[in-house]
Amino acid sequence: MNRRQLLLASAGASALRAVPAVAAAAAPQTADGFPMPRPENSLPPRPVRQDPARTLLELGWRFHEGDIAAPAPAGHAETYLSAMAGNAIGAAAVLYDDSDWAAVRVPHDWAAAQPFVESANISQGYRPRGIGWYRRTLLLDPADRGKTIELHFDGIATNATIWVNGSVVAHSWSGYASVYADITPFATFGDEPNVIAIRVDASAWEGWWYEGAGLYRHAWLVRRAPVAIISDGVYCDPRRDVAGRWQVPVVATLANSERAAATVTVEATLFDPEGHAVERASVAATVPVLEQADARLTLDIGDARLWSVETPTLYTLRVQVLRDGGVVDVRQIPIGFRTIRFDAERGFFLNERPVKIKGVCIHQDHAGVGTAMPDALLYWRLQRLKAMGCNAVRMSSNAPTAELLDYCDRMGLLVMDENRHFNPSPDYMAQLEWLVRRDRNHPSVIIWTLWNEEPLKSTPQGVEMTRRMVAVLKRLDDARPVTVAMNGAFNDPVNTSTEVDVTGFNYYQDQYDVYHRLVPTKPIISTEDTSAYQTRGAFESDPKAHIATSYDREAAGWGAPHGPSWKMIADRPFVAGGFVWTGFDYHGEPTPYEWPTISSFFGILDLCGFPKTAFGLRSAQWIDDAPVLSLAPHWTWPGREGHGIDVVVMSNAEQVTLSLNGRELGTQAVDRFLGNSWKVPYAPGRIEAVARRGGRIVARAVQETAGRPVALRLTPARSVMAGDGEDVQPVTVDAVDAKGRHVPTANLPVRFTVAGAAIIGLGNGDPNSHEPEQSPPDHGARSLFNGLAQVIVRAETGRGRIVMTAQADGLAPARLTIDRLAIDPPGQVPAISPQQRIAQWRRSAAFDARPSPDLAPSDGDNNSWAFVRSGTPTPVETGGRWRVYRAAITPWRAVAAGGGMLRFAAIGGRAELWVDGQRLADKADGAAGPLTARVPAGAGARRIALLIEADAGAESGILGPVTLAAG
After folding, report:
1. Model's pTM, two decimal places?
2. By three-state DSSP, how is residue 442 classified?
3. Is 408 helix (H, G, I), strand (E, B) or coil?
């Protein structure tokens, strides 16, 4: 089987390699009967990091499942302070004790670890979601002072509030839109930590499918120069002029956080796929204080190698910001040269060549990991689609991850890019603007979708809402058409199709001809079709057991089986193509069933990416440049001897011949839409299909009767993994008979161990299974379902080997060894252990004589005692030399239980330390120096008083950090 071979890519321009133009082909069937491809011997590409100022912020997080109510303030003073910036209370407070929270890494979907509960929402897969909290502490280098500091969260499911250092910095109202929070005004540097707290409300939902819960996409810390390009601030979509010459218009949006206007030079350089500079241009730009400015220039390219489905050629545009002769900011953006248009009579054209869109709709979850999809697993899923001839994906019904678009650019997959909310109000229009700004440079993106199946589609309100959203989108991108996914109302007097460029049909395939006759100038695309049901490996429906046959027979009432559905599209040149619902099964929406079914039946592949019969049929329908032949069902039917078995042969050849145990059963002209069928009395042995074109054999497919299972087998997707702590791959588990043949009927529990990697997910594709999908990192268990199960592993760091074992009672065990290569991990913001720091103090006026340590401001007195932070010197005294510094804290649990050490890094002046009225330590030297004291155990609030006597003419006070730690 020809597979896409990609070497691990670096960030340099010359490392952008498109997938080679190799003919797609479905996995060949052999007598072994194993349905998965052979392991590859190469690493998946890392996603392109366009902005080097972004660093992953994925280690060192702490998580608490469930809400934490903020305590009501006690008294006027606490109420007063709680309303002030930096003084968040409860779990958002800087000093909140999260020491017993779970340590997690992001991406993280806490719903994926939940049990299935009948009372939970059916559409969300019967998994409780609720509310959760995340916290993380980080240090910023003093060298970062003056830079623009941002936090980026690529996806938080569902609603979120983000605090930094006790102040709210962002709200998020969608799990699919990124959150960009400028934390520059709130950031601290050096030894003073920055505390991030996030409350995630996943009890809200946006879809009728499984959406996960938590920080389920990548998280980043951004540190960039004070005058630099903003996030998603480069627009560089190539255009071809009327003379056929290519140009790259570049718009770089700059921001300035300094205190004076700044003039910089913006330089753009285009590199070809081999890394050679093709063209360069520059322009000066002046950016006002705390404002933005656009720098515009155009690269005149002339001829360029085109990006296409078969040859997805990528160039790299490097945009640099230069100031005083040095580079202060840079972006490296993959771009592709291609033209697109939708024609009302002939469909979709790519580079002026008609291309039928052979697409699938996909959601963003996978067995075991939920929505926290690792990049390498996402890439593997796209490989599975590409292998069956799929050339397009619709990320329904929401914005995709940026990594998906990056991979689609490289692999030659077309993308229908979709907005989540049909709402032109400011919060939701901002989400649409974010989507377009982020994605408009991707050559894979060929069309925008504003919404899906909205009830307002045939109302004046719906028309006006659509009109306004189209206007905003077109201001940001005038090169791509816009559609909406309509389920009916196409011919109503008032309907939203009048406001978009391409009419999107969700089902209603019998209306294609009617609409085309009534509106002959409007292009048509099937935004969603089919909705066929199949249970992988089952060939007889059993409604009571919630099982759907894998023959192409069952579909939702609004849809159609795969064969007739595609024929409706393929036979009509004016229909640009379609998107099958769906490429993969997904958690939730278990139509047509309810409990105990917990995932869908719609997928061409199941929840693990294992192929159903539909995979072979779609391969036969969609692949034109390589022979395709597959045979269903398997040929292991003990007890069915002499009974007729429906046999389906799926091919793209001209003729197929079927034989059983060497006896020919007949030859038929190929039906690429429906497949070819025989009724064959079952006899154990070997059933074989042969495909011919021009009288010549071009492919064979075989199924043999398997014996009882005697051993387990482990088959990885790849024989190598990157030892970077990030690389992930699925390992297929199956049982074999005494001759080493796959046993498709094996349904038995299997136990696993792994060393050198961690198990991050388990699955088997059974829509009715309630087995846990997550386990401890070094061992787990999962049953085979109709012969298959899956273990997803993440490699540890460094050179070495990954060793995995599988055991089942009565079967010989399996052992798998995978090479782990020494690959540098991607940069991460260092994780630090949180410490209880005492940063906020009240400082008295100066006294000539030593005051009492009991001296304190009265409740509600927010004026006579100053509010100061540790590390802030008290200026040289001109009057009295004594002052009292007071703080009230509640020690973290470990200190409350066993006592701890209170450490002042530096105090200026002589000092007395009092805690709860007890004198614990003294500092006799007036020079700046440390002070340490042991604080006895005790629960509740503790009151600290520090008396300081300043030396004449010297700064005094709390000059450095103050910490309280167990010990």
Report:
1. 0.94
2. coil
3. helix
